[in-house]
Design goal:
It is a single chain. By secondary structure, the chain is mainly α. It has helices at 2-34, 36-41, 57-88, 91-106, 109-127, 136-160, 164-172, 177-188, 190-206, 209-214, 231-238, 247-279, and strands at residues 45-46, 53-54. The chain is globular and about 75 Å long. Strands 1-2 form a two-stranded antiparallel ribbon. The protein starts with a helix and ends with a helix. Helix 4 packs across helix 6 (136-160), helix 9 packs antiparallel against helix 12 (247-279) and helix 11 (231-238) runs antiparallel to helix 12 (247-279). Strand 1 and strand 2 (53-54) form a beta hairpin. It has twelve helices and two strands.
Length: 280
């Protein structure tokens, strides 16, 4: 079994290395030809123009703002739901809420996008008196809903894994149940909660299908109520017609490389913060 587990671990590492090497090999040529500064900080993307421009700063900022907005909405809601299910909810209530949360995880992203396009986008257009409701705000709302299952399920599992002795000791010292949950259980489960946030960030920053249906898919600098394009949707919307081996296709691989580095950077920063807190 030890050998079997080792092989499975090495296979997982091998997949990550293969993806990393492939993206680097495919993405570096475009960055070298366009120029790193022009590619990362250029504000115009016109890949099919007579004089093409490949600036992805609007995509980067849109992805950051969209993911940040989704995290600001989704993490508190998901975290509180996890605490409720793990510690407070009566068994009958939890038996209803938990399957509903699990069902959210099983809904295809295209269904989220379809509902957002048919319900959310018109509602935003009417509510804020806009010419078009497809916007960054609509994408943030959809992404916030989509990351809830990951945050709720992983955080709930981490909270349930906290030894009962911790909570019993806190209650014996005179703390209330709520104080015990938030001052004892949550700190003890912080690694699992942090893992749920990482999963949520990965889902939000990597989503394409739902976002492309509600965000408008226009390469504008990000504004809350304007049509925007994310890093993922930039790749998804143009890869189908990009000529094989062309600079446009290479630039799309470069966007995928930037997206991959973003996710790795988020993981590294969060792990460093957790390690710093443990040492402190």
């Amino acid at each position: 079994m030890h050998i079997l587990f080792l092989i499975c671990g090495l296979i997982s590492i091998g997949f990550v290395l293969f993806i990393s090497i492939y993206l680097i090999i495919s993405g570096i040529p475009a960055i070298r030809e366009i120029g790193l500064v022009d590619f990362l900080f250029g504000q115009t993307w016109a890949s099919t123009a007579s004089e093409p421009q490949f600036g992805i700063l609007p995509f980067i900022l849109t992805s950051i703002y969209g993911t940040g907005g989704a995290i600001l909405i989704g993490v508190p809601v998901g975290f509180m739901t996890a605490v409720f299910l793990a510690k407070i909810a009566p068994p009958k209530v939890a038996a209803v809420v938990r399957p509903a949360v699990d069902l959210l995880a099983g809904i295809p992203s295209v269904v989220y996008g379809l509902i957002g396009m048919m319900v959310l986008v018109p509602a935003i257009r009417e509510l804020f008196n806009l010419p078009d409701g497809a916007s960054l705000f609509a994408a943030i709302i959809v992404l916030a809903v989509m990351i809830l299952p990951s945050i709720v399920s992983v955080s709930e599992t981490a909270l349930k894994a906290v030894p009962k002795e911790y909570e019993e000791a806190s209650l014996a010292l005179g703390a209330t149940e709520v104080e015990t949950y938030f001052r004892v259980s949550v700190p003890a489960a912080k690694s699992g909660i942090a893992a749920s946030i990482v999963l949520g960030i990965g889902r939000a920053i990597g989503e394409a299908m739902a976002v492309i249906m509600v965000a408008g898919n226009v390469a504008n600098m990000p504004s809350l109520f304007s049509s925007v394009r994310f890093l993922t949707t930039a790749v998804a919307s143009e890869m189908s017609y990009a000529a094989v081996g062309s600079l446009q296709q290479q630039a799309l691989f470069s966007i995928a490389l930037v997206l991959f580095l973003f996710i790795m950077l988020i993981n590294v920063i969060l792990n460093m913060l957790l390690k710093w807190k443990r040492e402190k």
